[in-house]
Amino acid sequence: MRLSDRVTRVRAALVDVGYGNKARDWDNAPPGEVYRAEVQPLPTSEDIVGEQRVTTRFRVFLPPTADLEATDHVVWDGATYEVDGAVLPWKRRGVLHHLEALLIRVEQGEA
User: Fold this and answer.
1) Which of 61, 58, 54, 53 is nearest to 42 (CA)?
2) Distance of CA 45 to the CA centre of its chain
3) Between the CA of residue 93 and those of 61, 63, 96, 100, what are the distances in Å?
4) Which of 7, 12, 38, 106 could form a disulfide with 61 if both were Cys (CB 3.0 to 4.6 A apart)?
5) In angstroms, what is the C-alpha Rg of the chain?
6) 48 — pLDDT class (breaks 50, 70, 90)
7) Taking a C-beta distance cutoff of 8 angstroms, is the pair 2, 38 a contact?
8) Res 97 pLDDT > 70
9) Are 69 and 84 in contact, with CB atoms under 8 Å apart?
10) Which residues contact residue 22 at a Cβ distance below 8 angstroms, ignoring those fewer than 6 apart?
């Protein structure tokens, strides 16, 4: 697999937001690890009736040593995406070959 792209993983700390609740502090997330990757487009969608939003999806393939979690964000080609679901390990002949994850970005339009 050719990993010709570069992506940056961003991981935000959990902070107390009151009443015993915690949330990710994306505004203060430090620059993350940079990984070689392969990023491939998936079908997108546009909601033009209700909320005027565009949903963009990509599939990203990463080396088996990459540290990516479902709660992370990924920056690629100048845009920030959320990891959508679990990060999946792929094996070949019983050996971990690479990781795969879905990325999603929802952009709100004007109603």
Assistant:
1) 58
2) 18
3) 18, 16, 9, 17
4) 38
5) 16
6) confident
7) yes
8) yes
9) no
10) 14, 15, 16
- Parallel, antiparallel, or unpaired: how do β-strands 95-108 and 79-83 relate? antiparallel
Tokens of residue 71, six digits: 């709660």
CA distance 66 to 79: 20
Q: Indicate yes or no: pTM above 0.85.
A: yes
Residue 100's SS3 state is strand
- CA dist 13 and 30 (Å) reads 9
Determine the Cα–Cα distance for residues 20 and 107; give it in Å rounded to an integer: 30
**Which pair of tokens denotes residue 87?**
């990060």
Q: Minimum mean pLDDT among 13-22, 43-52, 88-97: which range?
A: 43-52
CA distances in angstroms from 54 to 20, 51, 92, listed in the order given: 34, 9, 36
